[in-house]
Specification:
- The complex is a heterotrimer of chains A (283), B (362) and C (199).
- Chain A is 27% helix and 18% strand.
- With 283 residues, chain A is α/β, with parallel strands linked by helices.
- In chain A, the strands form 3 sheets. Chain A has a 7-stranded mixed sheet.
- In chain A, helix 3 links the parallel strand 2 and strand 3.
- The longest helix of chain A has 16 residues.
- Chain B has a 4-stranded antiparallel sheet with strand order 1-2-3-4.
- Chain C has 199 residues and is of the alpha/beta class.
- In chain C, strand 3, helix 5 and strand 4 form a beta-alpha-beta unit.
- The chains are: A alpha/beta (283), B alpha+beta (362), C alpha/beta (199).
- Chains A and B meet through helix 3 and strand 11 of A and helix 1, helix 5, helix 12 and helix 13 of B.
């Protein structure tokens, strides 16, 4: 078999993706259609993110991949290895050392800085899809800024449950114009979307969409005056590093159903532990 | 004390090694060659070429071997390979009227110019396990005769001469390219056909069958089914004319459908069309039925809400590589989102519980 | 065919276009910042920055409009050889290339549709300088940024079309900056004072 190009994709495909990224940055929150290619990993496993990363990476980059906040989850390992092999880039687990971070389902705890790029893997980019399955309809709704249906859905939650029953992939409005799906991050991460120094790029391979948030873009989680948005997490400190400000995974640690809570961001947790922070479950 | 799970990389490597071993199976049994798969599992090879959208029997056979016979996995391998290939140009449209037919049948006429040619078909085999094959697969040579050189005319042309079937006017507009442009709705017929020809065989079959059972019924006759090889020509700008660059085997199905007329069209027969790489007739017939069902709008028919009439539903769900990827991705960890849901459900239950206590107290 | 038609492209397209794209992307994501871009040596009147942007973004799928002086044999031959981009008029283009005076008025370029605002032209404007100038606010900018612009009114009018509209890349020597449609532009306070003093 012939050798593959730098970062796997051929140059024409990269140009097509790059043009879509630029339009995405120019129209924050708008989903730009792009001719997603079949990748050597399955659709739904990060092909959108991988194509976006392939289009932005240079040989000088340092690349980090997380899934669920962790660098060592199998799919994160697999994607990291893919780019090590095809782009020869340096890799890291340290958030602050990375220039390009591909993520599934989390935004790192540590504040990102200028010069960094956060690439999200997106399964269903259309925030209105579960209210209206037809693409031709949702496209019209975006063009007319017809977001009433979304507000009705959220308000129905409140009248039925007393709360908005969306805990992840919580919809946001970008620059007062487009309602956007932030990918399935927990709503705990939503406030980080707007106050971000890094460039945020979203890739949905199977659904053939790319969208973007330039740094410091205005991003507002949808809510109501009498029910303001609340970024919630498990009400515990991390058992390993003692952090009280990080998003936590809940682990079942024994057959009796004993539980402990640890940071989902493994780099954040390890950095805190090496700095001497200790939680109640740490050795 | 809790120790976080590590070593994803080694786990993956070991899993791959085990997989390779499983693929090979018992090493006392001779290894399959690509040529054996290509020659003796040719219908599997054809399906992989059709749904993989790449005409290369050797690569398809390799993919089947590598995928341990999982055809969707094999199709995926081919698709991922084909996207990396540079494009030198596009061929001229093939002319199926020039097909050297191995098989050509019509259900609408007893006999017709060019004749009914059964060809290598399972149709009239009795589906009895042939235990002889378990011991010895050698077969006597099938009788043959000279193929002749005359081209075989299309059946629908006979109906066209009488004006009984809708016109299919010649159109030189280049079709959109599904593999280079994002799928866009509404999809015209060229785009729909392109999506259907690489669509999952099972999905297409199920949809076609549903139209026969009344979900968007448009009673179809197989006007003609033909399988054979056609020359592929490509225009070479430096030469200024088209040259033949090879041959492909195709299956083409044209259905003739009842049509009593609509608000816009007179009573006449209408067409459904299927064209698929390789000998793939179940797929080609299914494709023609679904194509016809999707044409309700241009023919002025009513949308009865049948799944096979719904272009978005059909085209967005027909691709088995997209479908299987997304379906199987739910195996990946989702514990961050699950944690979010846990917190929410606990909160809702706590509040519902508190409310009940309060109501009981009142 | 001229010798300089064949030369001056990226020697190592995969990595050079990757670096060039990052410059373009940073510029588009952080309006007002000025980025370096290298790797292309196109014939005059194309600047190295202009050449690199075109090599990075254009191919047979992107109709290009060459305006004014840029529509010359040297530029056409070089672009045709290195990108294969088809040349079209302003109404059909995806990229328009030229100096500001030759590119205006802006009403002739596609601005996208309400359902597909991305189907709009990007104007690549060759400038004599890139420096501080007008005040920019909007996505990509923390508080405010500044950039020399050939004029204000055209960009203000373009902003009112949002989410439709045109996007701009400004090239000069081996540097570039960008102005997406989302950005509000106004006269900087120093310019406003100069203007008031003049009148």
């Amino acid at each position: 078999m012939t050798e593959y190009n730098f970062a796997y994709l051929d140059e024409q495909t990269k140009r097509m993706i790059r043009r879509a990224i630029l339009k995405g940055l120019a129209i924050p929150g708008y989903q730009v259609p792009f001719a997603s290619r079949e990748m050597p990993m399955p659709y739904g496993w990060g092909t959108g993110g991988v194509q976006v990363s392939a289009a932005v990476l240079t040989p000088k980059d340092t690349f980090k991949v997380i899934d669920q906040g962790a660098d060592d989850t199998t799919n994160a390992v697999s994607i990291r290895t893919f780019f090590q092999r095809t782009a020869g880039v340096a890799t890291t687990t340290a958030t602050s050392d990375a220039t390009v971070i591909q993520t599934r389902h989390r935004i790192p705890e540590e504040r990102l800085h200028e010069g960094q790029i956060l690439v999200y893997q997106v399964p269903i980019p259309e925030p209105l899809r579960f209210l209206e399955p037809r693409e031709s309809e949702t496209r019209k709704m975006h063009s007319l800024e017809e977001y009433g249906l979304m507000h009705v859905k959220l308000y129905e939650d409140i009248s039925r449950h007393g709360h908005i029953a969306t805990s992840y992939a919580y919809p946001v409005k970008v620059e007062g114009r487009y309602v956007m799906d932030p990918s399935p991050i927990p709503k705990f991460d939503n406030p980080k979307l707007g106050d971000m120094a890094a460039i945020q790029l979203f890739g949905a391979g199977r659904e053939q969409r790319i969208y973007a948030l330039p740094p410091y873009t205005q991003v507002v989680s949808l809510d109501f005056e009498d029910h303001p948005f609340e970024a919630s997490k498990a009400d515990h400190p991390c058992g390993m590093c003692g952090a009280t400000d990080s998003y936590l995974d809940e682990l079942i640690i024994d057959d009796a159903g004993g539980r402990m809570f640890v940071c989902s961001d493994t780099d954040y947790c390890e950095a805190r532990q090496s700095a001497g922070h200790k939680g109640k479950d740490a050795a | 004390m809790y120790v976080a799970v590590k070593g994803g990389e080694r786990a993956i490597e070991n899993a791959h090694a085990w997989l390779a071993e499983e693929r090979r199976g018992n090493t006392d049994v001779a290894e399959l060659s690509i040529a054996q798969i290509r020659e003796q599992l040719s219908l599997a090879v054809n399906r992989v070429m059709a749904e993989g959208s790449l005409y290369d029997p050797d690569l398809a056979a390799l993919a089947i071997k590598q995928a341990q016979g999982d055809l969707i996995e094999a199709i995926f391998l081919i698709r991922a390979y084909r996207t990396t290939l540079p494009r030198f140009g596009a061929s001229e449209p093939v002319d199926t009227g020039m097909m050297a037919c191995d098989r050509r049948i019509s259900a609408t006429f007893k006999d017709l110019p060019g004749g009914q040619v059964l060809g290598p078909t399972f149709d009239y085999t009795h589906r009895l396990l042939d235990f002889k094959l378990a011991a010895d697969g050698e077969v006597p040579k099938a009788p043959s005769r000279d193929a002749g050189t005359a081209t075989v005319p299309h059946v629908t042309e006979f109906l066209n001469r009488e004006g009984l079937i809708e016109e299919a006017p010649h159109d030189d507009t280049p079709p959109p390219d599904l593999t280079r442009e994002p799928l866009e709705m509404p999809a015209d017929r060229a785009l729909r056909l392109q999506a259907l020809t690489r669509a999952d065989e099972g999905f297409t079959l199920g949809l076609a069958y549903s139209t026969q059972r009344g979900y968007g019924r448009n009673h179809a006759f197989v006007g003609e089914l033909r399988i054979g090889s056609v020359p592929v020509e490509m225009d070479i700008p430096e030469l200024g004319f088209a040259v033949e660059i090879g041959e492909v085997i195709l299956t083409e199905c044209e259905t003739v459908n009842q049509f009593t007329g609509s608000k816009t069209e007179p009573p006449q027969f209408t067409r459904g069309y299927g064209l698929v790489f390789g000998q793939t007739e179940r797929k080609a017939i299914s494709m023609a039925l679904v194509d016809r069902a999707l044409r309700w709008e241009e023919l002025g028919e009513d949308n009865v809400g049948a799944p096979a009439q719904d272009t978005e539903f059909v085209l967005y769900h027909a691709d088995n590589i997209q479908a299987t990827g997304f379906l199987e991705h739910i195996k990946l960890p989702h514990y961050v989102d699950f944690q979010s849901e846990l917190e929410l459900v606990r909160k809702l239950r706590r509040e519902a519980g508190a409310q009940q206590v309060q109501e009981a107290a009142e | 065919m001229q010798a300089n038609t064949l030369s001056g492209g990226f020697a190592d397209p995969a990595t050079q276009s990757a670096h060039a794209f990052r410059s373009v992307m940073e510029a588009m994501a952080r309006p007002g910042t000025i980025q370096d871009i290298h790797g292309a040596v196109p014939p005059a009147p194309l600047s190295p920055a202009m050449g690199a942007v075109l090599l990075t973004l254009c191919d047979t799928e992107t109709p290009v409009y060459l305006a004014g002086d840029m529509d010359c044999e040297a530029a056409r031959a070089w672009l045709a050889f290195h990108t294969g981009a088809p040349f079209v008029g302003p109404a059909q283009c995806m990229f328009a290339v030229g100096k500001w005076d030759a590119l205006t008025p802006l009403a002739i370029y596609p601005i996208g549709t309400s359902e597909y605002p991305d189907r709009s032209a990007t104007l690549i404007v060759e400038c004599s300088e890139l420096a501080a100038g007008a005040t920019l606010t909007g996505p990509g900018i923390k508080d405010q940024a500044t950039l020399s612009l050939p004029e204000l009114e055209a960009f203000q009018a373009n902003r009112t079309l949002f989410p439709l509209g045109l996007d701009f890349i400004f090239t000069c020597g081996e540097r570039l900056a960008a102005l997406p449609r989302s950005i509000e532009v106004s006269r900087s306070s120093s310019e406003a004072i100069a203007q008031a003093g003049a009148s």
